[in-house]
Amino acid sequence: MKKLPMNLALIASIMPSYCFAIDKSFTLDVGKPSYNIVYHYTKKSNLVTPDPNALVLHYDNGLFKDIEPHLTAYGLYSFEGSMQDKVMYGYYTLIPEKNNKVVYIKITYFNKSKRFQEVIIMPNGQKAQEEGYFEVRPNLYPNPELISWASESNIIAKMSFPGNK
Fold first, then answer.
1. How far apart are CA 157 and CA 118, in angstroms?
2. Which residues form the domain of 87?
3. 7 Cβ partners below 8 Å, 6+ apart?
4. Is residue 74 part of a domain?
5. What's the CA gap between 122 and 114, in Å, rounded?
6. In a domain, 147, yes or no
7. Is 151 a member of any domain?
8. DSSP string covering 116-136, please?
């Protein structure tokens, strides 16, 4: 199982009322690869990034890696429902690194139409709504550190989302 170094100060910023900043590092176990979700945005707010596509690697212990041309971030997720349900909900928290802030995201997946709607909530309460299409694929990457936008962008560009040319 791969371990990722994390900084406790980053975690403290996620839950400031329960933690205090400590300048120490720790490792986070990467679970077993479960699946990837590729997103193609048809309505984008630019609140986090202006990127029209994203790849999110999911691991069975609730860890994810978000890969976009202008953003690479790790975080934690959980789902309500399953891919077999008509509607499923995803709850994501991006763990801040460098100058990023904690971002909370709720995604509603409409599994039959492969459409999604997401609400992004920033720490200051600012909200944005985004939407588009998604595709679920197997996650074949046991080590998320080896995957980047440069290594995956050609595959994503060839996907057949409506409006993806």
1. 22
2. 32-140
3. 23, 24, 25
4. yes
5. 26
6. no
7. no
8. EEEEEE-TTS-EEEEEEEEEE
Residues in the chain: 165
The Cα 165–Cα 158 span in angstroms is 8
Handedness of CA 83, 88, 152, 145 (dihedral sign): negative
Which of 93, 88, 130, 78 minimizes the C-alpha distance to 14?
A: 93
Phi, psi dihedrals of residue 95, rounded to the nearest 5°: -85, 125
pLDDT tens digits, 20-74: 344 456 567 788 999 999 999 998 887 777 788 899 999 999 999 999 888 888 8
**Which helix (H) or strand (E) element contains residue 63?**
strand 63-68
Residue-wise pLDDT for 104-124, tens only, equals 999 999 999 999 999 999 888
Q: Is residue 120 part of a domain?
A: yes
Number of domains, the chain: 1
C-alpha span between 69 and 49 (Å, rounded): 9
Cα–Cα distance measured from residue 165 to residue 161, given in angstroms and rounded to the nearest whole number: 8
